[in-house]
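Notes, Module 5: Reading structure tokens.

Key idea: the token line is not a picture. It is a compressed description, and you learn to read it the same way you learned to read a sequence, by spotting repeated patterns. We will look at two proteins. The first is printed below with its tokens.
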Amino acid sequence: MNNKDIKIRGHHLLCLLHFEGKGYSEEFIENMKIVKEKLDDGYKFLLVVESDSICNKCPYLKNDKCLRESYPKEIERKDKEIINHLNLTIKEKYNFLDIKRMIFNRIKRSDFENFCKDCSWFPLCSQKSLFK
């Protein structure tokens, strides 16, 4: 994976902040760890609302399609909500370190809860005190 290959969808901007080595499978966890390390090292990413570099190793992704029933539309809506809240532009390249600062300046605890409350990982992520 090199700099130009990293794609990140909107909701994964928040997932990356909460990631602590848990996930759907070992392959998924290892991939997310690598993506997060690259982003934390300053690699730029392309912002998308489709399967991204994290989704690539998800066991629910087959032939670039999510197999979870309502997930694709629901997650695309969530991606767009977060992107709009942060006033970002789809298909633009960003530096994750800049985006992290922006997230902590613009997202409050209540926003996080609203964006993420329906996610199966919310109980784990909500234990962290990342947002005021």
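Here is the second protein, with the sequence above and the tokens below, as before.
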Amino acid sequence: MTRISHRTIEPVLQFGIKRGSLASAGLLLAFAVVSSGCPKAARPPSRPSVTKVCSGPERCRGRNPRVDDITILQQPGARPHWAPDGRQLLYDRRGRDGYADVLLTDLKGRTVNLTSGKRGIGQKNNGNAVFHPSGDYIVLVSEVSEHFGARNKIYGDPGLGLFSNLWAMNREGSKYWQLTDIPIRKHLFGKTPVMGVVNPHFSQDGSKLMWTERYDGKSGGWGKWRIKMASFVVADGRPRLENERTVVVPKKGNYVTGMGFLDPDRLLVAGNLSGQHEWGMDQYVYDLRTGDLRNLTSTPDYWEEGSAISPKSKRIVYMTNRDSRYELDRSNRNWSTQPMERDYWLMTRDGEDKERLTYFNEPSAPEFLGGRTIVAACEFSPDGRYLAGTLGIDHGTGKQRQMTLKVVLIRLKEAL
């Protein structure tokens, strides 16, 4: 979102299924893709460069004194995740074929493609990849080769994860292992629901893997989503999942997604778990032992997702549109056509001491980019000194957005 997300595609899926017209669904999908500003299948740059967002002879510290420096690390790119040593990051980028790949980059922008042209992994969309804490394995979202609407490249985008499974690979991208096996809808009139997986996260010790699963499309909105978990086991050099189970199913609302482990027994999640509109999702802490759910933001008028947990203080950075000049029209189900602004905010793990961290949309701020900007999925470096995030630059009109996604690197004055 934006990460390219299920919000963009859900009206298309429902239209195609209800009307029984794959051609009509394809036309609406094409419109949705253009409107949402999904990254085009542009030819990747031969020499990725690091570009300063802020200019001038002095280092830009941003409006918030916590921010020391801001750079664009990769463009295009999205969903960065750190290696355990803090020297490299995984991220997604669309290739010449229009499908996303998993790339590994260092802090100077030098990259290695881990999935493109590899025989051991599917060659549709691959991404949303995370390192195992050991650094030996990577888990990613990979689209299956054959499914309903397979020619539409947006379905399996790693930020959406429809028709996809979780896979593991070694750090070099030379060996691959399938971890999940969800039912796949093959035909327009098939009875299998449109399912998908997205947002894998490891526990701090690497023993557990959690992810988000779309398991049903019948909810009147984005479909039904839940959080699953399993033990991550490596035997004879082959990773696999054991004791797969569902750990969070919304009692109110229909959408939930995992953001990370606060500790072995508590998850940070986002969703409409208080029964609010899907566009008004909040940040929650879910206790695996008791099932208790605590709302950290309680702002049903704002979209708050894409969060990350700092390694030392357990402070939480999250995206929000609370400062946006544009109010989302909830009667328009295609949110992706609407102008939006989002920035990162910071709070304690108890939801206290909220403060704005970035000012990308504030004209008087050093980090202002000259127009509408959104932020999305992010992650702290292992030492808490850097925040790697997804930055969207809106090149659209005043009434319709057209987004280009980039990987942004925010250096903090002090580690969190």
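Summary for the second protein:
- Residues 22-36 form the longest helix (15 residues).
- The domain at 6-412 is CATH 2.120.10.30 (Neuraminidase).
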